[in-house]
Amino acid sequence: MTKNLLGKMLFGILCAVVLPSAAIFWAIASEATVSLPPFQSNIFGLVLLISGLLLMIIASITISVFGEGLPMSPFPPAKFVSKGIYRIAPHPIYVGACFFSLGLSIYFGSASGLWLVSPIVILGIVVYVQGFERHVLDKRFPENKFRPLISLPIQSDKAPTLWNRLSVFILVLVPWFFLLQMLNYLKGSCEFISINISFLSNLSFVDSLFLLALPLTLLTPLSAKTQSNLREFAVSGLFATATGFYLMVLHDPLYLSFPSFYIIWTGISLSTLLHQFPKAKFFWLLLGIAIFYSPMAAGYQTMSEVMAGLTVVLFVKQRRRLWEIVQKNSERLANSWKEWNFGWTRLLNYGFYGALVPFFAVLLVGMMIGEKYMLAIFIVSISTMVCSALWAQFIEGSGKLLRPFGFYGGVLGAVLGCYFVSTFFDVSFLLILAATSVAAPFVQAVGRLRCLVQGCCHGSLCKPSQGIRYYHEKSRVVKLSNWKGEFVYPTPVYSILANLTYGGFLIKLWFAGTSITLLIGLSFIFNGLSRFVEESYRGEPQTATLWGLRLYQWITVISIFSGALFTIISSPISLVHFHLTPIVLAFAIFSGLVALFLGGVDFPKSDKRFSRLV
Question: What is the C-alpha separation between 436 and 516, in angstroms, rounded?
Fold first, then answer.
């Protein structure tokens, strides 16, 4: 009882004092590394602050009264709460915390608070819910089907309720609008919410048809006949918002037309209307052609911007088919294990995927900082491989695993290697670490192909529609977990998609000339956030669980806080060049050959330690 009370007190202090204070300190200390413009508004800031504070207080009282406990995930209340404010909205305490963080940043005009700390706080909360709380709730209340009033509609042929329609506006359209206004503010607008309609006076009727995209988008949720149709509109809108803004940032955040959201929302809306009113398909077709052509005729948008918008629409409408293709090919790769014996020596095919890891690492870092540092980069690569092997032996080593490699050992080896070469070579520790950090997500994505074939880093059991199957007897999924032919989450694929996503963002920042410590910090933070969720779906039996979290989830927390510390260090900006030379390529190839030997060649007839991979 005393131990439980102490735990509650410590967790309460952590959430109510330590983490908020750390976030405020982080915003103040990292102000110099964030070059984006601040936004200051007493009224807007106070509204968010007070709203957030009230939400947190009301939700906490609601849990205490109806849940017979405290709002603490490690010490959850006895009952599931579906009354009061929890009847209206999900996770009101977390929503309030997000409002509070944004409001504080806006009230004090903190650029770091608005553009760095608050987005990471919001992502962190989403990650915590998806990677921990959601799984805990599913285990404690497996039969619970409760949905708050503000939530996405379910798959149903029933007519949407008023709350269903309002939810689409609150959860999809309003966030999209504010995200657009944030990018518009970065563009140099003097107002946070700025709507310019002065150009309308110069447009003809035909040229102005693209403006129908706005009423069309707003009316579609109101005209939906079934909850399924409304859900498809909402989910498509969320995917399109994420994809569209991501492409917009990668292309140029100061140019808000690539891809065209006029086209994106028109395509999603017309697809929904066509499904509901198929007899009017020719009308929807003509309307779509008119809206797609109109912005080009008016000179408001280019053909590339319109085509980019159409591509996003095609992507979100075919997302299920695309995921099925990914699943099918992932399962094929997962069962592609091959090996060749040459006397005492054996070559395994997954070693070639492992060889691509240092190849691309050395290649990318060499292209980013220059060929004169190639020896230093090669040493960092060797340090990464050695520490990766040592880590896996120390953390997961066993008679069955024999010669494994661990990702976080590689991270530690990269940091140590960068420090070593900065001491003995004429290279900046922060520069080579920044380039390594920017290259890291792409390198890890390639390395996950090896994981698929070998069967490491695999997921836990899942539904057939969600997973892939392993059949090869030497795969870890079959040999260690005994899940031959069972569907498991394709967690290596999750990792690949996450790494490619935030890797593209880091590359964009590198070429934009960003503080190199900010790049290092963001790489550590994004890796920690994505790995936390991925780890919650993994099913490796050898991974320990400590205080409700898997071991590597605790390490991701360390990664996130380490990244935050890097962002408060002042540093030069990144080098804006990217050159491939024969010397860079030669070092990359040699590094890959070393990795091929370490991770793809073994001696199965030997009884010496480290002699076998399987």
Answer: 11
Among residues 416, 562, 575, 426, which one has the least CA distance to residue 511?
Answer: 575
* pLDDT of 471 strictly over 80: yes
Q: Which residues contact 19 (CB under 8 A, 6 or more apart)?
A: none
Strand partners, 545: 550
- What is d(CA 377, CA 371) in angstroms, rounded to the nearest whole number? 9
Residue 133 tokens read as 């709380």
3-state SS assignment for residue 39: coil
Mean predicted confidence (pLDDT) in 566-588? 92
Q: Give the Cα separation of 323 and 16 in Å (integer).
A: 40
Phi, psi (deg, nearest 5) at residue 348: -105, 140
Q: 140 is written with which tokens?
A: 């404690």
What would the pLDDT profile of 80-94 be if each residue is shown by its tens digit?
A: 899 999 999 999 999
Helix axes 319-334, 303-317, angle to 10 degrees: 70
Question: In whole angstroms, how large is the CA radius of gyration of the chain?
Answer: 26
> In this predicted model, what pLDDT tens digit does every residue of 43-71 receive, in sequence order?
999 999 999 999 999 999 999 889 888 88
- Residue among 260, 438, 303 at smallest CA distance from 361: 438
Percent of the chain scoring above 90 in pLDDT = 64
| Rounded Cα–Cα distance for residues 559 and 549 (Å) | 15
Which of 281-295, 579-593, 599-613 is predicted with the least confidence, judged by mean pLDDT?
A: 599-613
Query: What token pair was written down for 284?
Result: 């929807």
pLDDT value of position 401: 46
User: Strand locations in 353-502, DSSP E?
Assistant: 468-469, 487-488
CA-closest candidate to residue 565, choices 527, 508, 530, 522: 522
Residue 248 CA to residue 245 CA, distance in Å, equals 5
Residue 372 tokens, joined: 């004169």
- Strand locations in 76-224 (E): none
Which residues have CB under 8 Å from 116's CB, separation 6+? 27, 30, 34, 518, 567
Confidence of residue 240 (pLDDT cuts 50, 70, 90): very high
Helix axes of 118-128 and 92-107: crossing angle, nearest 10 degrees: 170
Q: Convert the pLDDT of each residue in 394-452 to its tens digit.
A: 766 555 444 467 788 899 999 999 999 999 998 999 999 999 999 999 999 999 999 99
* Angstrom distance (rounded) from CA 23 to CA 29: 10
Q: What is the mean pLDDT of the chain?
A: 89
Q: Is 537 helix (H, G, I), strand (E, B) or coil?
A: coil
Provide CB contacts within 8 A for 77, sequence distance 6+.
Answer: 63, 64, 67, 68, 69, 70, 71
Mean pLDDT to the nearest integer, 486-512: 95
Rounded CA-CA distance 503/84 in Å is 42
Token readout for 454 is 């070998």
Q: Which amino acid type is present at position 66?
A: F
Measured in whole angstroms, the distance separating CA 97 from the mean position of its chain's CA atoms is 20
CB 220 within 8 A of CB 233: yes
- What is the structure's pLDDT at 195? 53
Residues 576, 262: Cα–Cα separation, whole Å: 33
Residue with the two structure tokens 């095609």? 314
The tokens describing 559, both together, are: 């990664």
Q: How confident is the model at residue 545 (pLDDT cuts 50, 70, 90)?
A: confident
The C-alpha atoms of residue 150 and residue 168 are separated, in whole angstroms, by: 9
Asked if 461 and 491 count as a contact pair (C-beta separation under 8 A), the reply is no
Strands (E), 432-527: 468-469, 487-488
